[in-house]
Amino acid sequence: MKHIISILLILITISVNSQSLNLNNNTVTLNDYGTVLNGTTTVWDDVMMPFNTGNTAGTGYPQFKADSGYYRFVIDTTGSSKCIIYMNVQMPHKWKEGSSIEPHIHYKVEGTTDPNVRVKYRWFNIDNSSYTSWSYYNLNKRSSTTAGNHAALYNSTPISGTDKTISSIFQCQIYVTAYETGKTELNAYQFDVHYEIDTQGSRNSLPPK
Length: 209
Known about the structure:
Layout: H1 2-16, E1 20-23, E2 26-31, E3 34-37, E4 43-50, E5 55-56, E6 63-65, E7 70-73, E8 85-90, E9 102-108, E10 116-124, E11 135-139, E12 141-142, E13 150-154, E14 169-178, E15 186-197
Antiparallel strand pairs: 1-2, 2-3, 4-15, 5-8, 6-7, 7-15, 8-14, 9-13, 9-15, 10-11, 10-14, 12-13
């Protein structure tokens, strides 16, 4: 009976204060945008970009290895193979506008040192120029060093999203600049962008929220 009374009291409290639920100053708010997460109540997800959704600079490069399910990258940004992938990533409506993002590559560990995958990128909002200057971001730390493991290749410093809005375009070119020791290729599964979520989606179909 005590448990039932406690539950009823909680429900009454929630009903009376239905606009905001507060736990240690971290809140879940219900407003015109729907459910909004604040503080440590925010969550994370990936914009997943399989390599076959991008465009390649050289025909047949990077090579897809069907038996293994990965793409074989080599260091070549100027030759006939020109092993570069071009991607356009649109930021979702549930992304926490202005928050940092964390691109990374999923790949197969085969050597003893960290490789380097370079992400040449520019990031622009709707109604802004797409011809902003390029920046460079190196993915040179790995989540595992065990040969044969599936690992995430990342950078410990995220990319700032200050002033960026939902549906902004993160445009990038992806290529390898350094192999693991003793290797002559890097075998990668997928590229994705880790992003913070503070709502289920926007109230409007286009920015601003």
